[in-house]
Amino acid sequence: MSYEISTLMNNTKDKLVTLKLRNTKTIQGILKEFDIHMNMTLEDAEDVSAEKPEKLGKILIRGDNILAISMDKD
Fold it and tell me: pLDDT-based confidence at 2, cuts 50/70/90?
């Protein structure tokens, strides 16, 4: 199963992803890197939780803070 997840994540690099976090925030950005712990680096990230998105730029999110990942379509 971990092989399928790794393959899916590799195919999603340089594409838009949406992350639902444990603190109820929702972050959107371009996936640049990830590791076996699902730590992720996103570029052009935005906090889209509120009515008006807040630009965050390049960020690193620890994998244990992520509840769900959505691979957005192009």
Answer: low
Read off the pLDDT of residues 16-42 as tens digits, 9 standing for 90 and up. 999 999 999 999 999 999 998 999 999
Domain ranges for the chain: 2-70
Q: Which two tokens stand for residue 4?
A: 């399928």
Where are the extended beta strands (E) located within the chain? 16-21, 26-34, 40-47, 54-61, 66-71
The domain 2-70 having CATH identifier 2.30.30.100: the answer here is yes
Q: Is 36 helix (H, G, I), strand (E, B) or coil?
A: coil
Confidence of residue 72 (pLDDT cuts 50, 70, 90): confident
Q: Judging by DSSP bridges, how do beta strands 26-34 and 54-61 pair with one another?
A: unpaired
Quick one: which of 21, 71, 62 has its CA closest to 39?
A: 62
Rounded Cα–Cα distance for residues 16 and 43 (Å): 9
